[in-house]
Design brief:
This protein has 210 residues and is of the alpha+beta class. Helices cover 18% and strands 17% of the residues.
């Protein structure tokens, strides 16, 4: 059996729109109820409506009671003048009790120390400086001159070493001067009041007798 032909202008498989009167009635009633509720919300207590720019109060204005007048001596903060209680003295204990200060007896001044012997350099002892022997060869050759001898002296005043500080120009005269000074005796050098080692330079002159 062949299908019946579809009317022109309609698509197959789609139902045509039909106006529902019952749905339109419910929409109209809901809209009218919304208008009534909105009018009740913006209506004032005196029957008038709020205008643009007015803000309806959310709650009734609260009432405030005045504060009592400040008491005498009050600075307005609500707290009167406070007088601190007198301090309570702590009981005296052996730990807090001050120890008596003892005055030490006067210490006697130390006795002055005797002045030590002044420091000095070594020097020859008078009467203990025999002249050296004149060398025979120097006598034959007629050698003369002065020898400066550096003497190293121990704490006992005895020479420990001798050396030529300045030569006379003659080896024989220099050797004779060193040997002769080794027999001398000296006053030792003094340092801090005690004998010590020291050095001294002595001149030895060699001259021919006329």
């Amino acid at each position: 059996m062949a299908p019946s032909p579809t009317p022109s202008g309609e698509r197959p498989g789609r139902r045509p729109f039909r106006f529902d009167r019952r749905l339109a009635l419910w929409i109209t009633l809901a809209f009218a109820a919304g208008l009534i509720l909105f009018a009740l919300a913006i209506r004032k207590s005196d029957g008038t409506f709020y205008r643009a720019g007015e803000v309806p109060p959310s709650t009734a204005e609260p009432g405030y009671a005045p504060l009592p007048a400040p008491m005498a001596g009050d600075d307005g903060s609500g707290i009167g003048t406070l007088t601190p209680p007198p301090p309570i003295a702590a009981p005296e204990t052996p730990a807090t009790r001050a120890a008596p200060v003892s005055t030490p007896a006067s210490t006697p001044a130390p006795e002055p120390r005797p002045a030590s012997v002044a420091d000095r350099k070594a020097r020859p002892l008078p009467g203990q400086t025999p002249p050296p022997d004149y060398p025979m060869r120097a006598l034959r050759d007629g050698d003369t001159g002065t020898v400066l001898v550096l003497v190293h002296i121990g704490p006992d005043g005895v020479p420990t070493a001798t050396e030529v500080a300045q030569s006379s120009g003659s080896r024989e005269l220099d050797r004779a001067a060193l040997q002769g000074v080794r027999r001398w005796r000296f006053e030792p050098a003094i340092a801090d009041g005690h004998p010590t080692v020291g050095d001294v330079v002595v001149p030895i002159d060699f001259k021919l007798s006329e």
